[in-house]
Amino acid sequence: xxxxxxxxxxxxxxxxxxxxxxxxxxxxxxxxxxxxxxxxxxxxxxxxxxxxxxxxxxxxxxxxxxxxxxxxxxxxxxxxxxxxxxxxxxxxxxxxxxxxxxxxxxxxxxxxxxxxxxxxxxxxxxxxxxxxxxxxxxxxxxxxxxxxxxxxxxxxxxxxxxxxxxxxxxxxxxxxxxxxxxxxxxxxxxxxxxxxxxxxxxxxxxxxxxxxxxxxxxxxxxxxxxxxxxxxxxxxxxxxxxxxxxxxxxxxxxxxxxxxxxxxxxxxxxxxxxxxxxxxxxxxxxxxxxxxxxxxxxxxxxxxxxxxxxxxxxxxxxxxxxxxxxxxxxx
Length: 331
Hints:
The chain is α+β, with helices and mostly antiparallel strands. The chain has two domains: about 5-145, Nuclear Transport Factor 2, Chain: A (Roll); about 175-325, Nuclear Transport Factor 2, Chain: A (Roll). It has nine helices and 15 strands. The chain has a six-stranded mixed sheet. It has a six-stranded mixed sheet with strand order 8-7-15-14-11-10, covered by helices on one side. The radius of gyration is 19 Å and the shape is globular.
């Protein structure tokens, strides 16, 4: 049994101090992160150092979503041997607060609002050296009454955590369970490949997914349930709407117990041929920055939570979704 106790304890202590911080967010970061800390966040933030994370992201967000709570659904750790080898700690859930002040031009409602998030933290020598924090801004926009995209193919929801309610792996897990989960994830990735396995889509999916799988997609695409509906409401339309997909690259990919996931920056590029999300085609390549979190049941995957930087993808194609929806010009 591999024990990631110290790395998990560090991230949990960081969250405890960060979630209670007010004006001293920069001091909290300086306590936990390294001098070469790198933070990656969805558009319009990009890559920031610790000082700018505090000033540009956490400060404005905390002023906007007052009385903020972290509602964590999944927490695990593991070793990755991808582009950034080492120990990573993963947290996924919602940041919930009262939407009392505008954020990124999104006007407040004075009501509860949920910002879906997922973070991967690389931990070395008792410090967080790198973070990928992905969050669903279009989902927050929809809660504020905005429609950043045309009607989607699946369901728009405030998404729950795992069906099994066992996603918070604060304690060490049997190593063999994590090995099985990572094998299931990698088998799915191998089947996905370049969309050239040669099987009918539903048959391909049944190789690595349980029949009652749930795909918790981002706002703009939505969530879908069972293999046939996933094929109809996301996977099929997605494949039909793109060409020239590149090979997939991950910065980290890991698993512990029945949970695992990966992220890339970007994971892959593809050319929109038209129709995806009700949007027109383009001759430009768009980047897909993605986090996927999985729950395994038996030998196959049962649930999948997905974070896609759709604002960045469409910005690559010359469409500034955030600016045109909020009517706030951006440079």
